[in-house]
Design brief:
globular, three-stranded antiparallel beta sheet
């Protein structure tokens, strides 16, 4: 187990970083120096009290609502004038790798609280800028927020991946509103098209997060730790099958999880239906295990359906934007099938992905597992 943990840490350190920056001059240095400084500025003003409430008041109306007034938000934002410039500068750095401690990786290692409020403030400001006709600045801020999300999700834990993905998809939601409301001219649409292609091409893989989660569990086990915050593990006890040894129970579970994470990471390159079968087989194996840690942690090795949905939505918007530019719906891969489906009638262009059930419902969406649909006026 000690050898495998050390190998996982080296694997994580050696993983290459894929730069998700649009074309253009890059700045030397690490993006997280700027992201962290921006997050600290925002947190000082909007982290609690009056500032938090002012931000919440305008955030609740995004992305389509029209807040009664941005005045209090803008007044407070004036007290941290460098935050968004720092965020934008960070998105131009040549290195966006999060400075993780691979010798002691924590499951929640991303400083999510302060980063989330930076993202909230950036969303509100981008929407305000767009309503004021400053669409170029709005797009720059949204791309910076999305780049921060990609940097956070790259080679992180599952929690960091989910938070980073949420930044990307929340920026996407405002982008879609700008497209749908017709606020972008042709150069603006072309900018969105290029930016979406960059997000699509550089979206982080889920396999590294699975491997890093197992690394974190192994390091915690070796320190003598457990999962006291997990209700399902509170009363986990070794039985005769684990020789009545908590250490044996932890080591056996870690080795099983490490092997399954290897299989799941490899399956990510398979078509969705095959990857789904690998994930289902892994979940069934853990559910049937007599090791209480295996059964309790089986939800820690899911197929990242949320990530596939994020990628599908980015491609749906790419298709709509390309239709606005070229008058034709492009052929784009569907993460849940072969290619995205589309229909165009006298009023509406509609594009859809099969969604997690893998079945073409003809562009009909439901909240459980139907098609993922995006439509807008021709």
């Amino acid at each position: 187990m000690e050898r495998r943990v050390a190998e996982l840490a080296e694997e994580a350190r050696a993983r290459p970083y894929r730069l998700p920056s649009p074309p253009g001059p890059l700045l030397p240095g690490n993006a997280w120096d700027d992201y962290a400084a921006a997050a600290r500025e925002i947190w000082k003003v909007f982290g609690d009290g009056r500032g938090r409430q002012a931000l919440l008041d305008v955030l609740v109306d995004l992305p389509r609502g029209t807040p009664v007034s941005y005045e209090e938000f803008r007044a407070l934002l004036a007290t941290c004038p460098h935050a968004f410039d720092l965020l934008i500068r960070g998105a131009r750095r040549e290195d966006g790798r999060y400075p993780r401690d691979w010798g002691r990786l924590e499951a929640d290692d991303a400083g999510g609280r302060t980063l989330n409020w930076l993202a909230n403030a950036a969303l509100v400001e981008a929407r305000r800028l767009a309503r004021s006709g400053e669409t170029s600045r709005a797009l720059t801020l949204l791309w910076a927020m999305a780049r921060m999300g990609l940097d956070l999700g790259h080679n992180g834990t599952t929690l960091a991946e989910m938070l980073g993905g949420s930044f990307v998809i929340r920026a996407y939601e405002v982008l879609w509103v700008l497209v749908d409301e017709g606020r972008l001219d042709r150069p603006g649409l072309a900018d969105v098209d290029r930016g979406l292609e960059v997000l699509d091409r550089n979206f982080f893989a889920h396999g590294p997060a699975l491997r890093n989660d197992v690394l974190s569990w192994g390091q915690m086990y070796l320190r003598g730790g457990f999962f006291p915050e997990r209700e399902s593990l509170k009363d986990a006890r070794p039985t005769w099958r684990q020789l009545y040894s908590a250490d044996f129970m932890k080591a056996a579970s870690f080795l099983r999880m490490e092997e399954l994470s290897r299989l799941m990471a490899a399956a990510e390159s398979l078509p969705y239906a095959e990857a789904r079968r690998v994930a289902d087989d892994a979940a069934a194996e853990l559910a049937a295990s007599r090791n209480p840690l295996d059964r309790a942690l089986k939800d820690g090795l899911p197929l990242a359906v949320a990530r596939l949905e994020w990628i599908a939505r980015i491609r749906l918007l790419r298709a709509i934007v390309r239709y606005r530019l070229d008058g034709q719906v492009p052929v784009l891969d569907d993460p849940f099938g072969t290619t995205l489906r589309s229909s165009v009638d006298a009023r509406v262009v509609r594009v859809w992905s099969l969604g997690k059930n893998g079945v073409d419902d003809g562009g009909r969406h439901n909240w459980r597992d139907g098609d993922l649909v995006l439509e807008g006026p021709r």
